Structures are given as structure tokens and as C-alpha cells.
């Protein structure tokens, strides 16, 4: 039997990545398992190498994480929890470096774009790296005082870098939403901030199909917090939708809305029923 201390949680990226930080926040007793891609993180759970996967789905500044919604339905995994993690960006350099010594900063292009004001103010050039934690590791390996990295505090701890400036992101509410994925579904009512139901669906090829499919949620007073479309298999006609709603499938209003949705769709698949994270509010 797997105990909490021996259980593993897979994530995409290197040790010190923000997904690693999310694992430490949501499952501090589990051993993090770094993976090269989102698919590898999913496969780690399916193969039994890890018990859970931590997947980012959207960021308050950057928006949707590319490709993740198309991976969820065919993953064979279930959403059992969500976690909202505040993304703090820090300027990290080899020990002994002063802020005025830094000439360039390396990071993922998204983070570089989220720190434009600070970098411009200090005349620091932007250097694109593969990812945040990998940039921190590269800066530590090069040992050049003039080169810094933009990454998490955790990355600084892991790679032995000094923090020259904390929380330098332009937006003060930069937050990433993560989903915890498990091989087993858990539809039990739990948590103290309500429940979220996530599902994907494909509308029938009839006029106003999406409008009609959504009607049941409006008439039953169900709050839909997310609705996004994505193409399936590169087709312009086979469009699927990903949705989050507040409530549990056993709630009378939710049940009626899903029944009505089923009438106007070719496919509906529930991806998870899980407690709303306090960070959502």
C-alpha cells in the first residue's frame, strides 16, 4: 500500500519549476516526479510511476495553457482537485552578484514578458531560455555574475542562487490554476467552498446548437465559469468545448442542465467533480 510519504506526483518541467512549486503547495508529503512533457506526466500516472499528475491549465496574465484541454479527455485520468498558485517571479544569480552587475536575464519567454517594467528600469537584456527552472540551472552552471535567471524561489534554493530581487512581475495578481489528475474519479461532496464539475462536449450539427445546449444552464440557474472551444484532430468542423460549472451532478439543477445538454450534443464526458479551491474566490 502506498503511503503519503512514498506517493509520487508527476509534473511537466524541471525541479524548481512553478509546477513543482504547485506540487509542494498542494501535496507537500508527495515526492515530485519531473517530466519532459505534459504527455509524459500523464503517462507517468497511467503506468503507475506516479499516483497523481499536476497540470497547469490557465494563467491570469498569459491565459490558457496551450494544448492542455485537448489532452485531458483522452488522458484516461480524472480531475480530483484544483489549486490556484500565486506566481512570484524573482531575479536569481550566482552568489556574490550585485543587482547592478546583472546585464541579462534568462527565462521562458512568458516570464520575460511579465517582467518588462523591472528589466527595462534596470537595463537588463532579455534572453530566452527553454523554461524557468532550466534557466536557473543554466545560470548556476555557467557561473557568470552578469547573467541572471527569472524563476521561482524554489529554483533558487535548488540551484544555489542568490535572490537579487523578489516579486518583480508587472501584474500584482499573477496566478496559475492547476488541476490534480488521478486514475480514479472521486465524485464525493467535499471541501467547504462548493463543488466544480468539468466536462467536454461536442454539439450536434444543427442550427444554434451551442445556444440551445447552453440554455439548460441558464434556465436552471447554473453558473458556468468557463467555456472554451478547441478543434479535434485539426478539423474545422469537429469542434469540442471544455466547460466548468459550479455545482455537483447530483444537484437537481445541474442534473436537469446536463440532461438538456445531452439532447443537443453528440458527446458529453465528465472530466472531474471536485471541490472549489478558496483561491478561486
From TrEMBL:
Domain Prephenate dehydratase: 8-183
PROSITE patterns in alphabetical order: ACT, PREPHENATE_DEHYDR_1, PREPHENATE_DEHYDR_3
GO molecular function, one term: prephenate dehydratase activity
Pathway: Amino-acid biosynthesis; L-phenylalanine biosynthesis; phenylpyruvate from prephenate: step 1/1
Keywords, sorted A to Z: Amino-acid biosynthesis, Aromatic amino acid biosynthesis, Lyase, Phenylalanine biosynthesis
UniProt superkingdom: Bacteria
Pfam families in alphabetical order: PDT
Enzyme class: lyase
Residue ranges of every copy of the ACT domain listed in the record: 198-275
InterPro entries: ACT-like_dom_sf, ACT_dom, Chor_mutase/pphenate_deHydtase, Preph_deHydtase, Preph_deHydtase_CS
The protein's Enzyme Commission number: 4.2.1.51
Record's keyword annotation contains Lyase: yes
Coiled coil: none
Reactions catalysed according to its record: prephenate + H(+) = 3-phenylpyruvate + CO2 + H2O
Protein name in the entry: prephenate dehydratase
Protein species of origin: Roseobacter sinensis
Organism taxonomic ancestry: Bacteria, Pseudomonadati, Pseudomonadota, Alphaproteobacteria, Rhodobacterales
